[in-house]
Every structure is written in structure tokens, then in C-alpha cells.
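Note to self: the last two entries modelled the partners one at a time, which told us nothing about the interface. This time every component goes in together.
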Amino acid sequence: MSSTNATISSPVMPVHDPKGGLLIALNATLKRDMMLMLRRRGEVLNPLVFFALVITLFPIGISPDPELLAVIAPGLLWVAALLAALLSLDSLFRSDYEDGSLEQLLLAPQPLAALGLAKVAVHWLLTGLPLALMAPLLGIMLALPTGSYAVLALSLALGTASLSLIGAIGAALTVGLARGGVLLSLLVLPLYIPVLIFGAGAVQAAIMGDGVTAHLAILGALLAVALMLAPWAIAASLRISING
Amino acid sequence: MWAFINKLRSPKWFYGISAKLQPWFWALAALLLLTGTLWGLAFAPADYQQGNSFRIIYVHVPAAFLAQSIFVSMAIAGLVFMVWKIKIADMAATVMAPLGAAMTFVALFSGAVWGVPTWGTWWMWDARLTSMLILLFLYLGVIALRGAFNSRDSGSRAASVLTMVGVINIPIIKYSVDWWYTLHQPATFTITGRAAMPMEMWAPLLIMVLGFYSFFVGLTLMRTRSEILRREANKRWVRDLIEELR
Amino acid sequence: MAFSSLNEFLAMGGHGPYVWSAWGVTALLFMVIVWHARLEHRQLLRGLKRRARRESQSGSYPHGSAQAPVKPAQGDVHHDA
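The predicted structure of the combined assembly is written out below.
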């Protein structure tokens, strides 16, 4: 990064170990975002309430028959969780964009990709992880067969991490647009499909008594690919949204 | 190589060279598409299982190929634009996107029509059709994102990033959809999933595929020229060109 | 030749509507695409020519000069000094 070089060669700046500088910056970003999000509890709770509400709609719209619900429960839970995660994406960079702190992030000597990753990590901790923990509860209400609850939570925890990373690209691309919300879902949902296939597949495999390690391994692989590539795309997108 | 890349930086050079290349691609496209159509519709033997409905393959498969290739071309153009700041690449990517969406639509429509005699229904969540549908959404996303920005340069760069993200995801989507399909509908008959076609059947298919590609190149050259005029309208060489034409 | 008569060719062994609608829509779309691209190019050229004519009449872009077009400054210049 050219900005990093500039800081190191600048005579005014005190000489710090750049690695330590990065860790400090990551820590600070994590703490700051955590604190901001925890202050706006509504924003953390909204996706969870949305998740529960959507799950309530399905038995009303389709049928309260437990046998039917048990068949479609894995897919319903996964789709509803995916939509809940999508709902929370628009606010990922929005307030930082509006109050100008995103620009400060861009000017920071630390690589933007790493700082963006820290923000995504906070997003997953406060959206994806709660959704994963809440899903078994809603699974009971949908008569999800026993033996698949742990897999449901685990697949959601793994999968929502990928969803947060991919979704952050879309959020970064649309953060400068006035009506980015609808566009965001158009950009992001097609890219969510592989995660949905293997996430819901894992739960179905657990119900049928097949091995779930293959599915979870693929979910992990998707997460690894997303972890490698998404931060760069997020950084490039944030630069476009702010400079243009 | 570098001389060529530097030439590509000049829209004026591209405007001239594309005018010379264009007629050749149109002629080639017309020749190939007419030959392929005649051969595929009238001379190729009927399929022993599907009868004459199999002839839809000659528009379905080339359209599906082209739809995927155009997205990859757009991603390459986006990369060239982002790395070397070559504006021609972005102009080409801009005009390719609607054609790609149109080809995806052709593949979906012909697939749906083909489904009626083959599966007895207009729509099946067949692996190929499902991936095509997702590809259509990817195209719509790129087009919409480009249009959403007020500044053309931001829109171009955003669309380039999204296209590159999409092109990494296309194989992942394709394989996961294939996997999902085999899991849920085992041993169903896929419309184009057949091995060992006789020569009289695949030769027209090859001709049609090449014809579709020539059409794509010809159209991209033509529309890139229009895009150059649109974006460079205030440049000196465009003004001089218009003076000459007047 | 896979067909012995024109009627047989049009019927496509009972699959006529499907085969012909798939090909028809594709052909139609190709023609519309080409028509649109030609129209687009012609309209752009026509618009640019019209602009050149307008500017040569008002004299704002003198033919052969390397200057960027300047707006005619006649009577709308205010000197507040």
C-alpha cells in the first residue's frame, strides 16, 4: 500500500513497528464498532426479530401440519436467516459513511482490507452468530427432526460468516448511493446461492442421517475463499464509493 | 505488446481500426448463422429420442455459451480497465452487458420451450436453466449498478469490481447448482447432457456457436464505436471527424 | 435432407410450434439488436453533426482552431471593477 510507505518514510511520524500498528488499529476498529453497535441495540435485534417473524409467517401461509413443516424446515430456516443477514447489511458502512469516519479509515496508514475485515467480523459477531444461536429455537417451532439442531447452528455460523463477507462487498459498492438498499439485494443474493445450497444441504443430510462433514467442509472452503478474496474487493469498493 | 496496449489507449485508433474490422465479422456472422440454421433445421437428422424438438439445441447451446463467455469477457475488460486505465476496455464492457443479458434470455426462453415436448412443462429447475437464471440476475446487477452512479467513472469502476467478483463466483455457482440438482432430481433426463453426437448433428452446432461469437464481436465493435462517440463527443478528433463527414 | 416435403419441414414431426418459436424469438431478437445498434450510431452521428452546424453558425468553435469551445461573450460580461 502506498499510504503505508508514505507513513514510514515520513520524518514527522514517530517510528513504530508497523505490525504492532496494524494490530492496534484492528483492535481499535473492533472495539469501536462493537461499542457503537451495542449502543444501538435496535439494530442488533432487528435481524433477529425479522428472522422470528418470517419463520412465523410460513406455518400461517402454508400449513401448520408438523409433518409438512419438518420437510421444508431446513430450507425455510436457511432462507429466512439469509434474508435477515441481508437486511442488516445496508447499515454495515452507512453510518460510518455519513459521519465521515469511513474516510478516516481510508486515510489510515494500515491496509484498508484489514480494517474492513475487522468491521465485517463485528457484523458477523452481532448478526450471523446470534442468528445461528437462535435458529435451533425456531427449528423446534417448525418441528425440525431431532439430531439436526447442532448441525443447523453450526452450518449457519459457518455460512453467515461467508454471507457477511460477500455482502460487505455489495454494501461497500452501494454505500454512496441514495437508494442502495434494493440494489444491494440484487447484487448480493445471486452470490449467496452456493452458501445456501450447502448450508441447507448440511441440515438435510443430518436429518437423513447422512454424513455432514462434506457439507460443512465445503462451507468452510467457501469461507476460506471469501476470507482470502473479499477483503480486497471490499477495500476497492470502499475506495470507489468514497472517492467518486 | 506494449505498443499494442498503448494503441488501445487511443479511442481514435480504435474507432478507425474497428470500422475496418467490423464488416468482416458481420459477413462471417451472416454466413455462419445462415449455414448453421439451414443445416440444423433442414439437413441434420432428427434425434432418435427427442425427434425434431432436438433442433432447439442449435440456438439454446450457442446462446448459453455466449452468455457465459460475455460475462468472462466483461470481467477481463474490467480488469484491463482497473489495472491499465484503458477506457476502451470499459466502453466495451458497457456495451457487452445488455447483449449478455439478451443471450441469457435466449438460452432461458429456448430452454423453457424445449422443456414442453421433453419434460411436459415450461419450467424445470434443471441445473443448466437454474444457472442461466442466476447468470441473468448477475447481468442485471452489473447493469443496474453501473446506472446507479451519477459519475460515469465511479459507475465504471464499481461495475468492474462487481463483474470480477461475479466471474469468480460463476464456476462456484455452477458446480453447486449441478451438485444440488443431482442430489434432488437423480437420474432425470437433461436436455443437452448427451455424449457422442454424430457428425451431422454437431457440425451445425459448431457452426452456430462460431456464428454467435462472430455476431458478438461485430456487435461489440459497432456499439463500442457508438460509445466512443458518446464519451469523446467534446474531443478534438471527434469534432474534426464530424467536420469531415458533414 | 431430413424432410421430404415443405409441410413436413414446417410441422417438424409435431414439434413445429416449439422449434419455430425458439428460432423465431432468437431471430427476432438478433434483428432488433442489430437495428438498435445501427439506429444508435446514426442518431449519435446526427446529433454531433447538428451540434457542429450550430456551433459553426454561432462561430464558437472556429474550424481548424485548436481551442476548446468558448461560449459567446457578447453583452453578458459584467465588469464590477
